Amino acid sequence: MIKDNINKTNGNMKTARAVLDKTKTYSNRKDTDCKNMDYKDTDHMDMKKINPNKTAKVNIDKDRDTVIKRKFEELKTLRQKGFIPFVTCGYPNLEDFIKLVCALDKNGADIIEIGIPFSDPLADGPVIQATSKNALDRGMNTDKVFNSVVEIRSKSNIPIVLMTYFNIVYRYGIEKFLHEAAVSGVNGLIIPDLPLEEFRNYEDYFKDGALDNILLASLTSGENRLKQISSLSKGFLYCVSVKGVTGVRNTVSLEVIEFLKKIRKFTDIPLALGFGISTIEQINKTKAYCDAIVMGSKILSVLLSSDTFKKGLKSIESLVYSTSLSLKS
């Protein structure tokens, strides 16, 4: 069983809460956002009853592609770094997934990355694979993902990025997928198995400005390729910190820091570092060279190792607070 190795800051969460509340601003929030939500509010929710044609109240226009950009501009003004937690849609179940997202929003997330469960997740390690299988076994599908985003949007304006694989997008219908994602309230899209050469065949679909297309930069890519990827990515550039799949790791190599320095020389786009980030020590070592940190396997491993969802959620609240706080100081 995966162990919960949360940093030893739990005993001082009142202080952390006070500091974080002072440093983080929440612009354009709704009165019904996750900050004011009683987690019991979703206990009655039956996703089967959500109207499949229901959409969030958003406008698809060129201003939509500035949602994530504005968040990074806000963070830059405050001289802070962003925190982007990753969670698998539908895990551990649809109702608790909504509660989990609200907990992330409430406890310091700046952007939330939501993964669409897939049977062959080539970029994901054992933790995310396990949560994806669980969600698929419970009947999760693309329409339910969009409906979940609609539900989140009724409570929160936090920027949302979907992570999915191209097979899902292609099978659903590229134009239809992008449209449904946008009207549901999604702000950005990550497709890790759509390489630069293939992306060029589909980039016209993103030119309406409805969604930020967020591309991945790899440690093994040459400078010319990194320049091309950086020029095409919108919102932020996802910098992969390992030569492998996602998963909990305790160290980060000096190669990663040089990698971030190299990219920064030729692009101003925000850099988000992910894959294997799980400790405050890793964050402190790298945050000066990037604009945000993505954490997924560490968060989901807490739920996998917890006896109950309630216990896991409480641990995640502490983890997210302490992580976000380290990025705001």
Folded structure, characterized:
The protein has 329 residues and is α/β, with parallel strands linked by helices. The chain has a single domain (60-327), classed as TIM Barrel (Alpha-Beta Barrel). It has 13 helices and nine strands. It has helices at residues 13-23, 67-77, 94-106, 126-137, 142-153, 166-172, 174-184, 196-199, 223-232, 254-264, 280-286, 297-305, 309-327, and strands at 82-88, 112-115, 160-163, 188-190, 212-214, 216-217, 237-240, 271-274, 292-295. A nine-stranded parallel β-sheet has the order 5-4-3-2-1-9-8-7-6. Helix 1 crosses helix 13, helix 6 (166-172) crosses helix 7 (174-184) and helix 12 (297-305) runs antiparallel to helix 13. The radius of gyration is 18 Å and the shape is globular. Mean pLDDT is 81; it is low at 1-32 and 37-65.
Nearest-integer average pLDDT = 81
Number of domains: 1
Main beta sheet strand tally, sense and closure: 9 strands, parallel
> What would you call the structural class?
alpha/beta
How many beta strands in the DSSP annotation?
Answer: 9
> Helicity, in percent?
40-55%
Radius of gyration: 18 Å
CATH architecture: Alpha-Beta Barrel
**Count of DSSP helices?**
13
Superfamily (CATH H level) name = Aldolase class I
**Morphology call:** globular
Alpha carbon gap, first and last residue:
33 Å
The unreliable regions are 1-32, 37-65
Question: In sequence order, what are the helices and strands, one letter per element?
Answer: HHEHEHHEHHEHEEHEHEHEHH
